[in-house]
Known about the structure:
With 353 residues, this protein is of the alpha/beta class. It has 2 domains: 2-165, Rossmann fold; 176-328, Rossmann fold, CATH 3.40.50. The chain has 16 helices and 13 strands. It has helices at residues 11-24, 41-50, 67-85, 97-108, 128-139, 148-156, 169-184, 187-191, 206-209, 212-227, 238-247, 263-272, 281-289, 304-308, 319-328, 344-352, and strands spanning 2-8, 28-34, 58-59, 89-93, 113-116, 142-145, 163-165, 199-202, 232-235, 256-258, 275-278, 294-296, 312-314. The protein has a 7-stranded parallel beta sheet, sandwiched between helices. α4 runs parallel beside α5, α7 crosses α12 (263-272) and α10 crosses α15 (319-328). The longest helix has 19 residues, at 67-85. The termini are close together.
Amino acid sequence: MFKAVTVLGARPQFIKCAPVSRELRKVATEILVHTGQHYDENMSEIFFRELEIPEPDHNLGVGSGPQGAQTGEMLKGIEQVLVRESPDYVLVYGDTNSTLAGALAAAKLHIPLAHVEAGLRSYNRKMPEEVNRVLTDHIAALLFCPTETAVKNLAQEGITKGVHLVGDVMYDALLHNIGIAERKSKILEHLQLKPKAYFLATVHRAENTDESENLRSIFRAFAELVSCGQVVVFPVHPRTRKQLDALGIALDARLKMIDPVSYLEMLWLEKNARVIMTDSGGVQKEACWLQVPCITLREETEWVETVQAGWNVLAGTEPAHIVEAACQSCSSPATPLLFGDGRSAERIVRLLS
């Protein structure tokens, strides 16, 4: 029996953690640390309940703030936990500030670091996520890659030791939860939506929310779509809402803006959407698995396989490109088996053991 400290802070990490935690607790002691990066009810607590993740053993309550200050506060709190718990491994997920803080704390204390979702690259260093994932990969002892592309990316940077192709734990989570979402979710009835009769949109990445022209362009595209009679449903990330208010961006009243939704509700919204427009990496993959055409509101993606498979179009932030891609939304080819077989968590835990 070994001990692992898992560091989480944002909703994509909760999703990734759930299948790994289920397997991990069969053979190890797991200590959960929640940094508080996502801290409100709809962005955090409800995910723990829906995904049946145990209550965090340590909640740092860091909250939002400038990148450096937020990461520094997390690093301070995580280091204190690691000294107290003395684990055999530290597990981090993805590319958030919580990931980087957990990685740095582990490295400083010489505790082996395991990075789930290692090897992703956008090759855009202006993205804070890219900086976080590159630094984390270069100090990790175990690198769990979701794709062959990720393995190759690491090899190009000279990282070959401790690299394992395991598949994508988000696919594990989707397979486990899509049936539950179908049985439990009433989101379509609540929003008076018909299946395959609406577009679903999400915007949260700093490259869009912190760049005023990008944000204005995206919402001009949404306005054009609703003016043509399309229904656009937009769960609003807190960062995005804050920026919209600060910039005074006028929003079309016909845009169906709603509060952030739970994981199960989001899965069901994705499953029944005609088209998904997003800057989220996780949503791009879920769209592919659910066979819903995806328009990515970025110039590049870490998940190049979704583009190659024909389910994802890189539209950037120009309104004309977004509208054209969204309105074409042709049927795509049958989805190949991407990112594993739904047993990634088992492989990760076996390697840790």
